[in-house]
Amino acid sequence: MSHANRAILFDLDDTLFDHHRAMSAAIGAIHAAHGEGLPFEPFSLLHAELLEQIHLDTLAGRLSLEAARVERFRRLFAHFARPLGDSAAAEMGADYRRHLQANRYPIDGAAELLQALRAAGVAVAVVSNNLEQEQRDKLAHLGLDRLIDLLVTSERVGCAKPAPAIFQTALRELDVPAQAAVMVGDNWQADVAGAVTCGLKAAWLNRFGRRCPEPTLAYLPLDSLTPTDRLARRLISHGCANQLC
Ligand SMILES: [Mg+2]
């Protein structure tokens, strides 16, 4: 019987915060307003791809969030042979942002899960590849800010998951050793592989039924954050890889 875990680390975007839902609503609104005649599926897929790509420039400090949005819409519409002027791209970026902000919801069970973990005496941290202020605002809007002990962003640490330094910063600030901590996240490479490399245990939140890229890696598979009490117990006792895979 292994010792219980003392800290649970969570990714934020698409782990506690339903970014997929907000993004779908926002890109749907942009398509309805400006995408007449453009097929929605490829439009929306390319947008999601560009978001991932250009977000790396934001993480590296090369683009502000606003400039990243403008660049994304410029490339998206250029792909469909509808080049945007500067002001049109800026307006679209602002429009997208408005819809995104109006559609910010937690993943089902997120608040209850954090509450259950803290009630059990476990430390809770959010470890996120994003900007500090953006994530602070998001956590406050979702009402999750009071339910966490620590926020660690890639902006503050100066490197992004899966780099070990970001996990190590969280562990150091929580004063918990890697082997007594679990990282929960939706991104295989950044969250699961990154955490395991660092000596933490990991849980993969796979809401969309993706195939596991490395089935030999020990991890706790999750398809949702509910039922929360049971999941809290599983995360606290998660330790024996053999019983999980
Ligand atoms: Mg994520």
Automatic annotation (TrEMBL):
One of its GO terms (molecular function) is hydrolase activity. Keywords: Hydrolase, Magnesium. Its cofactor is Mg(2+). InterPro entries: HAD-like_hydrolase, HAD-like_sf, HAD-SF_hydro_IA, HAD_sf. It holds the Pfam family Hydrolase. The keyword rRNA-binding does not apply. This is HAD family hydrolase. Its EC number is 3.1.3.-. It comes from the Bacteria. The lineage of its organism: Bacteria, Pseudomonadati, Pseudomonadota, Betaproteobacteria, Neisseriales. NCBIfam families: HAD-SF-IA-v1, HAD-SF-IA-v3. It is an enzyme of class 3 (hydrolase). Gene3D superfamilies: HAD superfamily/HAD-like, Haloacid dehalogenase hydrolase-like domain. It comes from Chitinimonas lacunae.
